[in-house]
């Protein structure tokens, strides 16, 4: 159960429950041989299959505007929007000594992210808010951003994405005291299905002091609600 693993899921989306958009595991389900094929061959094969999909839909692939689409989609899948599947693209998180002895909470809020729902392959996008309490080492702020982007660039469910980011930060920072909140729009809810353009889905990951101390958690929540 997700609820026993330090994650609270506030669903403001009815459809989200209705379609049972809950993932099956914390790890992205990948096959053992996932990266035996190189990126260029993947692009070539996806291009071929996507051309077939467009052809089946009755589109005229000799049209100048459509001709390049299969290649563009294939390249976008492998090199951009799903590039976070491949561990070789994982950002190396370099730690720095915390010279100021800053042992308070550090919050990075409003990190924009774009992901894709693994059930429909349409965008999930929104903002992530991340916090940690340094155990003596700190990480460059842009690295937090890159970790969020890396896990976003996979077919995802929002709960798993939130936990993958939280667990990676724990590992990279060598601390249990990590919190992540993600507030996202799901295009599978807004552009199809119930066509609800207003609802967003909020997921959270609280570990260490953020889980055990209400005061710490509330401090984080207060910071992310501050206006700039
Ligand atoms: Zn979906």
UniProtKB/TrEMBL annotation:
Family as reported in the entry's similarity comment: Belongs to the GTP cyclohydrolase I family.
Residue ranges the record marks as coiled coil: none
Annotated GO MF terms: GTP binding; GTP cyclohydrolase I activity; zinc ion binding
Gene that produces this protein: folE
Name this polypeptide is given: GTP cyclohydrolase 1
Listed GO CC annotations: cytoplasm
InterPro entries per the UniProt record, alphabetical: GTP-CH-I_C/QueF, GTP-CH-I_N, GTP_CycHdrlase_I, GTP_CycHdrlase_I_CS, GTP_CycHdrlase_I_dom
Keywords: GTP-binding, Hydrolase, Metal-binding, Nucleotide-binding, One-carbon metabolism, Zinc
Annotated Zn(2+) binding sites: 117, 120, 188
TM stretches of this protein: none
Oligomeric form and interacting partners: Homopolymer.
Organism domain of life: Bacteria
Catalytic activity: GTP + H2O = 7,8-dihydroneopterin 3'-triphosphate + formate + H(+)
Pathway given in the UniProt record: Cofactor biosynthesis; 7,8-dihydroneopterin triphosphate biosynthesis; 7,8-dihydroneopterin triphosphate from GTP: step 1/1
Family matches, as PROSITE patterns: GTP_CYCLOHYDROL_1_1 (PS00859), GTP_CYCLOHYDROL_1_2 (PS00860)
Class in the EC hierarchy, top level: hydrolase
One GO BP: one-carbon metabolic process
UniProt cross-references to NCBIfam families, sorted A to Z: folE (TIGR00063), PRK09347.1-1 (NF006824), PRK09347.1-2 (NF006825), PRK09347.1-3 (NF006826)
Catalytic activity, EC: 3.5.4.16
Limits of the GTP cyclohydrolase I domain: 46-224
């Amino acid at each position: 159960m997700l609820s026993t693993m330090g994650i609270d899921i506030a669903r403001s989306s009815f459809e989200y429950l209705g379609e049972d958009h809950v993932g099956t595991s914390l790890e992205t389900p990948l096959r053992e041989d996932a990266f035996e094929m190189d990126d260029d061959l993947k692009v070539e094969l996806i291009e071929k299959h996507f051309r077939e999909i467009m052809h089946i839909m009755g589109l005229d692939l000799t049209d100048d505007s459509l001709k390049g689409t299969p290649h563009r989609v294939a390249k976008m899948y492998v090199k951009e929007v799903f590039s976070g599947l491949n561990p070789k693209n994982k950002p190396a998180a370099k730690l720095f000594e915390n010279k100021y002895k800053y042992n308070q909470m550090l919050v990075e809020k409003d990190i924009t992210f774009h992901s894709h729902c693994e059930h429909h392959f349409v965008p999930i996008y929104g903002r992530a808010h991340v916090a940690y309490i340094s155990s003596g080492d700190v990480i460059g702020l842009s690295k937090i951003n890159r970790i969020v982007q890396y896990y976003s660039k996979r077919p995802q469910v929002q709960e798993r994405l939130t936990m993958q980011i939280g667990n990676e930060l724990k590992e990279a920072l060598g601390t249990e005291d990590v919190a992540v909140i993600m507030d996202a729009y799901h295009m599978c809810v807004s552009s199809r299905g119930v066509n609800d353009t207003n609802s967003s889905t909020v997921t959270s990951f609280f570990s260490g002091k953020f889980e055990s101390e209400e005061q710490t958690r509330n401090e984080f929540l207060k910071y992310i609600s501050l206006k700039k």
